[in-house]
Write a structure and sequence with these properties.
It contains three helices and four strands, in the order H-H-E-E-H-E-E. A two-stranded antiparallel sheet has the order 1-2. Strands 3-4 form a two-stranded antiparallel sheet. The longest helix is centred in the first third of the chain and has 54 residues. The chain is flat and about 110 Å long. About 6% of the residues have low confidence.
């Protein structure tokens, strides 16, 4: 009986020691992660401060001069790609809220900010792609009055209902008409693209 008691005591001490070590290890891991995050934050703050120094015409030596030039080149490349994307989509980015706005719009439909009209000039000067001239159709063949006496019936949901099991067509949302200038706006617009009034 005494041996069993000693064994249980040793086992209990071992479990307690292991639990204590695990708890201590976890605390140390959390503290280490916290300190590493703090160090990353300091690095970020240093980088921001160096960036500010160069923005205001300062210099910190050759290494930083080269890195700052790399930053400027990368930022210019990013802006160029954004501009190209906007041109392809036929939109501009609102400087106030960052929404994509049609190039011809005078106001942002999301926040109502006035768009810079000078930014839309390059798009207006782009050469328009002329479509191919329309091909003249062959003259219509007069139908035989006896053979084709019945008029063509246009398919319609009332005449030809949708087969069972198919969902009904989704109704198209109507464009919003501005009460001030009567311009057409997209269904989700909050402000008029033309005059900037609240819709």
């Amino acid at each position: 009986m005494g041996d069993l008691k000693d064994t249980l005591m040793k086992f209990t001490k071992g479990v307690t020691k292991t639990s204590g070590e695990l708890l201590k290890s976890t605390k140390l891991s959390l503290a280490l992660a916290s300190e590493e995050d703090k160090l990353k934050q300091i690095y970020t703050e240093i980088g921001k401060k160096v960036h500010e120094i160069y923005q205001y015409g300062g210099s910190l030596g050759k290494f930083f001069d080269e890195k700052y030039l790399e930053i400027q080149k990368t930022e210019a490349g990013i802006q160029s790609l954004r501009d190209q994307m906007d041109t392809v989509k036929g939109v501009r980015t609102c400087s106030k809220c960052g929404a994509s706005v049609e190039r011809t719009a005078g106001f942002c439909p999301k926040c109502g900010a006035q768009m810079d009209l000078a930014a839309s000039v390059p798009a207006a000067r782009e050469p328009a792609v002329r479509p191919d001239p329309p091909v003249k159709p062959d003259p219509p063949v007069r139908p035989d009055p006896v053979v084709n006496a019945a008029p063509a019936v246009r398919p319609d949901s009332a005449v030809n209902p949708a087969p069972p099991g198919n969902p009904p067509p989704v109704p198209r949302q109507e464009k919003k008409i501005c009460r001030n200038c009567q311009a057409e706006n997209e269904p989700g617009s909050k402000f008029c693209l033309t005059c900037g009034r609240l819709l």
